[in-house]
Amino acid sequence: MGLTDREKELLVEIQLWQDHQFLEFTNDFVNTFDRWLDDTFLRLPEDFRHKFFKQLDQWLFTIQAVIQQSENQTEKMKKLLTEASIENQHIHTITDLKQLPIEQLNYFANREKSNHQLISLLQGGVSGSGSSLLLGMDIPLMITVNLRAIQNIACSYGYDVRNPFEMMIALKLFHAATLPRRFQKHAWDELMAEVKDKHDPYFYEGDEKITAEKWMLQLLTQILKAWAILLFRKKKKEGVSFISLAIGAGLNYQMTKKVTEFAQRFYQNRLLLEKSQSK
After folding, report:
1. CB of 77 within 8 A of CB of 155?
2. By its UniProt entry, which InterPro entries does this protein fall under (predicted)?
3. What DSSP designation does 100 have?
4. Which of 125, 123, 170, 175 is nearest to 150 (CA)?
């Protein structure tokens, strides 16, 4: 099956995005910090490191499972299929969405991007201006919003994340999208190589490890964000600190914007490569 002119243009856009996104920009400070982080983890007992990241991965699995089993998510998938069937009466499953023109799939995905960026903005603002309890819930809520965004974008391009293989790809995609940019190209290449291989959607036979030492930089960023919010909130003895609100809302919005853009480019690229290789 050949690509349309628009799909060929989109492949060029994706390549230009990759050239910009994966542009390496490091300096002595960044390299020193990376080495320090690696050395710090190497000093920890291997058994402790293994258990820590295994527990972190299990936490992400649990959050994803809760999202998929929620009634809201089920209804969203039904509405997506209903809307798509208006365009093509032969669409009955999420995988059937691949039959639609890429412009229609982009419309579905862009809508999810906008919705989740708004949700992230509001959620970050509430965490930044509310109680310490709400601030403490910021990281799990932020992860939930972004994992849900990735799942919905995947479905928008015809990839059913309820299947074990797609579930694992979505989790690894979340990990890749939230890495510092200097580590993203390697993660992107690994993901693309994994989806190019023939696979059974109902089984996952690859490496189930998701997080690693480099991802701790993302957690460190979130901890620093919480510290900044608390700092400015304490300076505001009464009422709402608009600085802490802006920090929470702004950083969460930027993260979701980055994650959703990364996810959309990944699923666009994957779909177009599949179409170009199919007969």
Report:
1. yes
2. EcsC (IPR024787)
3. S
4. 170
CA distance 143 to 140: 5
Q: How far apart are CA 48 and CA 40, in angstroms?
A: 13
Q: Find the DSSP H helices in 206-241.
A: 216-235
The amino acid that residue 155 corresponds to is C
Q: What is the pTM of this model?
A: 0.91
The one-letter amino acid at 205: E
- pLDDT by residue for the chain (279 residues), tens only, comes to 578 899 999 999 999 999 999 887 667 666 776 777 777 777 878 888 888 888 989 999 999 999 988 888 889 999 999 999 998 899 999 999 999 999 999 999 999 999 999 999 999 888 877 677 777 888 889 999 999 999 999 999 999 999 999 999 999 999 999 998 888 999 999 999 999 876 777 778 777 888 887 887 777 788 888 888 777 766 655 555 678 888 888 889 999 999 999 999 999 999 999 998 875
